[in-house]
Design brief:
Layout lengths: L2 H6 L3 H11 L3 E3 L8 E6 L2 E10 L2 E11 L6 E5 L2 H8 L11 H6 E5 L2 H8 L2 H8 L5 E6 L13 E9 L5 H20 L16
Antiparallel strand pairs: 1-2, 2-3, 3-4, 4-8, 5-6, 5-7, 7-8
Length: 204
């Protein structure tokens, strides 16, 4: 065992590689100058875990592109003192889904209140969201990053991102489970297609 590993424990790459084996995903080693990735399949969808830098800050990110059936979009993040003040002053335009603890802990915004309620009425979705100490979860256009491929307009993606590098194995497993559950439930509420083989041409 190397001195660095003995002092600091396994590296991010080692943890992500172990995660890949555990969830039957592919680990892509970015080498010295690239970005490590974990790429998992769930039914016809691909879920990608990686990191990126924005200014001086590093972020952990998960993405899963899918064909958006009806243009449904949302954003969810944890509530804090500052956005709590915004809520009280009517500045956020957030949606409450009628589950008091969840409404208290999270800010939810979206373009279809009924579909938001149907999505977050799913107990497992809420459980997996609540298991994340920090979360910024949203549906955005699949090509909203300028370096992404040129996706058709009806391809959106679920995106999770938080500052820092996540190396907690259980947290990462829950994130992949959350994405799988969200993709399945988007089909249930009519916001995604259960079987869309054309999407295979547009994966990240």
């Amino acid at each position: 065992m190397s001195l660095l590993r003995e002092l600091f424990g396994p590296s991010k790459a080692e943890i992500w590689q172990t995660l890949s084996e555990k969830i039957a995903a592919d680990f892509k080693d970015g080498g010295w100058f690239g970005t490590d990735k974990v790429v998992a399949k769930h039914r016809q969808w691909t879920i990608t875990l990686d990191t990126y830098k924005e200014g001086k800050r590093h972020y952990t990110r998960l993405r899963a592109p899918y064909i958006n059936r009806d243009g449904f979009r949302f954003r969810l993040y944890r509530s804090n003192f500052f956005n709590d003040m915004g809520k009280k002053m009517g500045l956020e335009g957030d949606v409450e889904i009628g589950i008091p603890d969840f409404d208290y802990d999270f800010i939810i915004q979206g373009n279809d209140h009924y579909k938001l309620w149907k999505l977050f009425a799913n107990e497992r979705v809420r459980y997996l969201i609540e298991g994340q100490p920090a979360i910024n979860l949203q549906i955005v256009p699949a090509n909203h990053w300028f370096w992404d491929d040129d996706y058709p307009e009806n391809v959106d993606m679920i995106e999770f991102k938080v500052q820092g590098t996540i190396t907690d194995m259980r947290q990462l497993e829950k994130l992949f489970n959350l994405f799988a559950e969200l993709l399945d439930h988007l089909c249930t509420i009519g916001a995604a297609y259960e079987d869309d083989p054309t999407l295979k041409n547009y994966y990240l």
